[in-house]
Design a protein that fits this description.
Its EC number is 2.6.1.16. This is Glutamine--fructose-6-phosphate aminotransferase [isomerizing]. Catalyzes the first step in hexosamine metabolism, converting fructose-6P into glucosamine-6P using glutamine as a nitrogen source. Homodimer. The protein is α/β, with parallel strands linked by helices. The chain has a five-stranded parallel β-sheet with strand order 2-1-3-4-5, sandwiched between helices. Strands 7-6-8-9-10 form a five-stranded parallel β-sheet, with helices on both faces. Helix 13 links the parallel strand 9 and strand 10. The longest helix has 22 residues. It starts with 10 loop residues before the first helix and ends in an 18-residue tail after the last helix. It binds 2-deoxy-2-amino glucitol-6-phosphate (AGP).
């Protein structure tokens, strides 16, 4: 069945606006039912992983995540989630590098291949190599029955629905949702997460679509910000902790569809080089949501400001300080810090979308890019 734009001017816009529904589709079958008895409240359902020896994975083995592009950014977030919530060690590899660096993978390890299309040649080959070395292969895919889904030992589908735009949006946020669910599941099985904490995270995931709707409600305000900065030719995106992969993804979105140069950096890294780029012509998007690291992020923001950089801050609703520090502010609802990456990705997608549209770019089919890269 042909997928239509349903009144949106581009598939990308349609797919951005589908995210509340897409996250619901990813999570609903895995979340405990409302009214679940006390014990079930913190347990997401992963029957596919029943045979996985999770305590051994945590104590004597490791997870290797393999992906490219946007899916690699999800994997980077997955490392933070798995290690912090489940205490399971994770390595993240660019699939295109993995096979050529003589990776150390052993029987008992879990290789997680993340791919929207399930057809990315590098990710396919990396998964094959990890399995050859003895790892169990787990695929996180959107496209059902795709090559990677078929070649893995186990598959988890994100159920985001067809993603037509070359620039990935809902596939990314649903990958993040799946990785969060998985981290909670693993955390329960290693004992790293209490039932209460797990139940709180799952409640947060259940309520996330409403928060996403609130973010999407700011699309017009984000378009105004895009108009203000449309002449900029270099952008920086800064984030710390889980916001770091989101910053990388925000910069990739802008590069892909507007052909404007953008770099994502961890906040703490800017003083090691990129701060030299900063002047009054460089907008710096700072992910400054409340939570661990907030004060350090503000310190980075001040460093940028002191050098004349223009700040577009992404902050939590209710933040009273940020308005004095930033040139533009986008507020997102308060959610658990582990769920912030999903929410924070959306304004950055909208910003890239509007900047590309204002420049008259071919938003859905950017030059030189294909939706899935089936050659190595
Ligand atoms: C995303 O906006 C990109 N077009 C690209 O980086 C993509 O994420 C990458 O090619 C991986 O694709 P996959 O998830 O289908 O494997």
């Amino acid at each position: 069945v042909a997928v239509e734009k349903q009144g949106f001017s581009h598939f990308m816009a349609k797919e951005i606006f589908e995210q509340p529904q897409a996250i619901r589709a990813t999570t609903s079958g895995r979340l405990p039912r409302a009214g679940e008895d006390d014990l079930g409240r913190g347990e997401p359902s992963f029957p596919e992983l029943a045979e996985l020896d999770v305590p051994a994975l945590a104590a004597r083995a490791k997870v290797t995540m393999l992906a490219c592009g946007t899916s690699w950014h999800a994997a980077l977030a997955g490392k933070y989630l798995f290690e912090q919530l489940a205490r399971v060690p994770v390595e993240v590899d660019l699939a295109s590098e993995f096979r050529y660096r003589q990776p150390i993978v052993r029987p008992g390890d879990l290789a997680v291949a993340i791919s929207q299309s399930g057809e990315t040649a590098d990710t396919r080959a990396a998964l094959m190599e990890a399995r050859r070395l003895g790892a169990t292969g787990l695929a996180i895919c959107n496209v059902v029955d795709s090559s990677i889904a078929r070649e893995a030992d186990r598959v988890l589908y994100t159920h985001a629905g067809p993603e037509i735009s070359v620039a990935s949006t809902k596939a990314f946020t649903t990958q993040l949702a799946m990785l969060t669910l998985l981290a909670v599941h693993l955390g329960r099985r290693t004992g790293a997460l209490t039932l209460e904490r797990a139940a709180g995270l799952l409640d947060g995931l259940r309520e996330l679509p409403v928060a996403l709707d609130a973010v999407l409600g700011q699309a017009a305000a984000i378009e105004i910000i895009a108009r203000r900065w449309r002449s900029a030719r270099d952008w920086l995106y800064l984030g710390r902790g889980l916001a770091f992969p989101v910053a990388l993804e925000g910069a990739l979105k802008l590069k892909e569809i507007s052909y404007v140069h953008a770099e994502g950096y961890a906040c703490g890294e800017i003083k090691h080089g990129p701060i030299a780029l900063v002047d009054e012509r460089v907008p710096v998007v700072v992910l400054a949501l409340e939570g661990p690291g907030y004060h350090k992020t503000l310190a980075s923001l001040e460093e940028v400001r002191a050098r004349g950089g223009k700040i577009i801050a992404l902050a939590s609703a209710g933040d009273r300080r940020i308005g004095d520090l930033a040139d533009d502010v986008i507020l997102v609802p308060q959610v658990d810090p582990y769920l912030q990456p999903i929410l924070a990705s959306v304004p950055l997608q909208l910003l890239a979308y509007h900047l590309a549209r204002l420049e008259g770019r071919d938003v859905d089919q950017p030059r030189n890019l294909a939706k899935s890269v089936t050659v190595e």
